[in-house]
Structure prediction request, 225 residues.
Amino acid sequence: MVNVLMIEDDIEFARTLSEYLSRYNIKITNYEDPYLGLSAGIKNYDLLILDLTLPGIDGLDVCREVATKYNIPIIISSARDEVSDKVIGLQIGADDYLAKPYNPQEMYARIVSLIRRHKKVTAETEETSGEDSKFRIDEKRHQIFLEDKPLTLTPAEYEILSCLIQQYSFSLSREQLVYNCRSIKDKGGKSLDVIIGRIRTKIGDSSKSPKYIHSVRGIGYKLIG
Prediction:
């Protein structure tokens, strides 16, 4: 579960975005009052979505305070699309700026990207692993390990499993997985289930009672464990 703090005084907008993101195991806790949001235990959240037009205080001041005190990714979500607001927001600590209106799917993609970058291991290790995951990627050797045991994978299997590991605990759509797999010739996605099946066999997983790769109805797959 990814916990997102949102400071947004448009209740309906916050509810719509929250309902959409909940499909991807992302929980939003929204505060209409920015002062309550600032006292909500920010360090306990994975990311902040921040509106700029708020009651009693400008969102840019909230952004500055949060960026100064906490190590948390910040996405500004605002109908204020002036270049000056975007520049100032990014300069004072925001990591991204998404002008309203936007498709919730774009916000989802940006959240995933930001959290992945925020938690990414240092380049010196040349390894990537999901937090708390038993899988590990050695990018230099193009090798994936399960509990430190190397897996023998085809290029397509490596690409799909790598994508799932890098987005650990996130639900990925079939389209996202196919797009990130250069080895899949069938871009319609018919080959994806076959590849997932082969990966499950190699990691000792089962589609009926999955331990690692879980099917998400209406979306795609996610990796847990």
